[in-house]
Amino acid sequence: MFQLKGKVALITGGSRGIGRAIALELAKNGVDIVVNYVRHRRDAEQTVAAIEAHGVRCLAVKANVAKEENVERMFAEIREQYPQLDILVSNAASGVLKPAMELTARHWDWAMDINARALLSLSQHTVPMMKNGGRILAVSSLGAVRAVPNYTVVGSSKAALESLVRHLAVELGPEGITVNTISAGVVDTDALKKFPNRDEIISESLRRTPLGRLTTPEDVADLALFLCSDLSSMISGQTLVVDGGYAIQG
Ligand SMILES: NC(=O)c1ccc[n+]([C@@H]2O[C@H](COP(=O)([O-])OP(=O)(O)OC[C@H]3O[C@@H](n4cnc5c(N)ncnc54)[C@H](OP(=O)(O)O)[C@@H]3O)[C@@H](O)[C@H]2O)c1
């Protein structure tokens, strides 16, 4: 058990997939949770029930993290329940999967706003609520540093996200806030169903991963827990990869 009891965490996109696993892992370790989602209320309600079963408080807030007025309303709701926040996990993501030649300005803005700019806006609202230092995590993928077919706009937004993490880490370090990126390997969540070549992605990942299996939401959540704990207090501005060794293969 880590010493996290009484802390409060906001996890964007915390209702499903990787975000849900992170929310549950933190809840198991005594953290009160705010789960953000944008469309699927039932998933959010089920996640709230699973989190509350661990004896912590949980609030679900619907907000599109790409929309400033939504984010402002979400933080107003959070402040009504919690005077402070200790952990921010910027996990929600979206984006069209198309070759670069088919992308429009709208596709670009959509991915950039949800996947990259949201971390800036969420941090600007969260940092004033962090009273005794804090932890900020962003969830990224290998597409930030490698060219992946159809992943142009999401990969570019993840590259911006990882750069933003480094800039925030430098600026917020003096306030005792660490900022890190978790870069995850292929995880079989709903997001993967949107890839036209899902089966190929999974088989290729299995073939190339030295540890011989896909990354699970729980693998990502374990790293998130470590990065929220005192054990990681001197780690900041880093991209930590959890992928069973996939990315290091030549
Ligand atoms: N799956 C992978 O292979 C993989 C690999 C590496 C990194 N990642 C990263 O891991 C993170 C989570 O991915 P996932 O696979 O768990 O996705 P997922 O299963 O599709 O879940 C997405 C979550 O984000 C929420 N969301 C989407 N757009 C939002 C918005 N504009 N505002 C607020 N919430 C929004 C969704 O809410 P609703 O249910 O209400 O729509 C849902 O809770 C993403 O950053 C992704 O890029 C995934």
How does this model look, in words?
Helix 1 (17-28) packs parallel to helix 2, helix 1 crosses helix 7 (217-228) and helix 4 packs parallel to helix 5 (152-172). This protein has helices spanning 17-28, 41-52, 68-81, 105-126, 152-172, 198-208, 217-228, and strands at residues 8-11, 32-37, 58-62, 87-90, 134-141, 177-184, 239-242. It has one domain (8-242): 3-Layer(aba) Sandwich (Rossmann fold), CATH 3.40.50.720. It has seven helices and seven strands, in the order E-H-E-H-E-H-E-H-E-H-E-H-H-E. The protein has 250 residues and is of the alpha/beta class. NADP nicotinamide-adenine-dinucleotide phosphate is lined by residues 12-13, 15-19, 36-40, 43, 64-66, 91-94, 114, 139, 141, 184, 186-187, 189-192.
Tell the overall outline: globular
CATH-defined fold name: Rossmann fold
The CATH level-2 architecture is identified as 3-Layer(aba) Sandwich
Number of strands: 7
Strand content: 15-25%
Report the oligomer.
single chain
Q: If helices are DSSP runs of H or I spanning 4 or more residues, what is the number of helices?
A: 7
Annotation keywords:
alpha/beta; Rossmann fold; seven-stranded parallel β-sheet; 7 helices; 7 strands; 42% helix; binds NADP nicotinamide-adenine-dinucleotide phosphate
Summarize the structure.
This protein is of the alpha/beta class. The protein is built from seven helices and seven strands.
